[in-house]
Write a structure and sequence with these properties.
The chain has helices at about 10-25, 55-65, 70-80, 80-85, 85-90, 110-120, 120-130, and strands at about 95-100, 100-105, 140. It has about 170 residues and is α+β, with helices and mostly antiparallel strands. It has a domain at about 85-145. A 3-stranded mixed sheet has the order 1-2-3. The N and C termini lie far apart (about 150 Å). About 5% of the residues are buried.
Length: about 170
């Protein structure tokens, strides 16, 4: 008798629900969806490589990977001159050039040039300790240069300008 009567909507819905339950039971258990990108693992109490880093640490790693250590040492001699030699000495001289390990220092007077020549071993020891051993190997100290009377591309040999008016 149940076969003769037409299917009611509730019977159709019940049959569809039972089919969906059976299909769901046959499927494997769902896994967690993975977020795009590399799988993160716990790095411990300290920051990992993919965490935000202090700027100084990033610059140090960039300098070491690009092999800029020699250039940064040379730059430290000029940039930190006052801290390397002390404010008293730095007030009376300045570094001019650094070529092949020889640092040219220009003093403000001949007296300071003489004093710096006497202090050269001490200054070299400070530079070796704070910057590095092979950056500065020699120190050449010069005094102030006299003004040049040579103006333009042509000049005459001799004593230079003198009083010709009288």
């Amino acid at each position: 008798m149940a076969e003769d009567r037409p299917a009611r909507p509730s019977d159709i819905a019940r049959a569809a629900l039972e089919a969906a339950r059976a299909a769901s039971a046959a499927r494997p258990a769902p896994t967690r969806r993975r977020v795009a990108g590399p799988r993160r693992k716990w790095t411990g109490p300290r920051p990992g490589d993919d965490d935000p880093q202090p700027l100084g640490r990033l610059v140090d790693s960039l300098v070491s990977t690009q092999d800029w250590t020699e250039q940064t040492r040379v730059g430290a001699v000029f940039g930190r001159w006052s801290a390397l030699v002390g404010p008293d000495i730095a007030a009376h001289c300045r570094p001019e050039t650094l070529t092949e390990g020889e640092l040219l220092v220009v003093a403000e007077s001949t007296a300071w040039a003489t004093q710096l020549r006497l202090l050269a071993p001490t200054i070299l020891a400070r530079l070796r300790a704070q910057v590095g051993g092979d950056v500065v190997t020699r120190l050449r100290v010069v005094g102030p240069t006299a003004p040049s009377w040579k103006k333009g591309p042509r000049s005459v040999r001799g004593r230079g300008p003198r009083d010709t008016y009288g």
